Amino acid sequence: MKKFRLGALATAGVLVLGAANAFAADIAKPQDEGWTFTVAPYLWASGIKGESGLFGFPPQDVDVSFSDVLNNLQFGFMGLTEARNGPFTISTDIVYAKLDANIGTPRGVLASNIDATVSTFMGTALAGYSVYYQDGTNFDLVAGARLWSVDNSFDFHGGGLDGSSASDGDTWVDPVIGAKIKANVGNGIYLAGWALVGGFGAGSKSMWDVMGGAGYQFNDKMSMFVGYRAMHDNYSHDGFVNKLTQQGPMLGFTYQFAAAQ
Q1: Residue pLDDT, tens place only, 10-61
Q2: What is the tens place of the pLDDT at every residue in 223-256?
Q3: 4-20 as b/e: b if 16+ CB within 10 A
Q4: Is the pTM of this model over 0.85?
Q5: Is residue 42 within 8 Å of 22, Cβ to Cβ?
Q6: Full DSSP string of 122-160
Q7: How far apart are CA 89 and CA 73, in angstroms?
């Protein structure tokens, strides 16, 4: 039976939540008119460090590896869609993860073990405009919002709390602004990256999100992308604390198609 700190478990779901906006920066192809659409499933093999707190207790230090997440992952989905018409873009990033773990207690007085379930959702919507858009290169300014929703449920077995349950979590929205870049370097290879900042006290106190990497275009419709991403979020409200930094490599595949004329 693997033991986890409650604070670490509560944030483990964030590890597999990546932001698929990574690939929105690499999939745009210059086109004078008409809509093109892209879908891009991906994996972000992220670890996490920082502080996490539940139920008003003092925040605990968190240091969780990506392998810990995989050991407890029950279901996960990561992917984005993007629509582009010339220099204009609209992109969405939807990420969901559900983790289950059985936590052993050291003395078994209040409970002999705890079944914990963590569900985490992160959704980002951005609108953008390419201030530079030619020769296979685009530089986009973007703005939008990122929605977070975290739910932590605990069922107690044995001890004084046998048969009882508890839950804690929160939902918040961060305004987001930033930039994305994509540049073809020849022979089907391209470079891509983005930088986002947000929160500004409206949701999180602060948030930043940066990525850089390279891709290969197999044909007009399909490509593969590898990169490295780091993201930080600092949010707290009513005893719930989420002050975390995630970073790790990313791998994604994109499929692009044009709207019927």
Answers
A1: 444 433 334 344 444 444 444 456 899 999 999 988 888 898 887 787 888 8
A2: 999 999 998 999 999 989 889 888 999 999 999 9
A3: bebbbbbbbbbbbbbbb
A4: no
A5: yes
A6: EEEEEEEEEEEEETTEEEEEEEEEEEEEEEEEEEEESGG
A7: 33
Q: Answer whether 154's CB lies under 8 Å from 167's CB.
A: yes
> Length of the chain in residues, anyone?
261
Using the structure block, give the residue that is written with the tokens 């703005």.
143
- 3 state SS of 17: coil
Distance CA 2, CA 13 (A): 17
Residues 6+ apart with CB under 8 A from 231: 19, 207, 208, 209, 210, 245, 246, 247
Q: How far is CA 255 from CA 34, 41, 185, 212, in A?
A: 17, 9, 20, 20
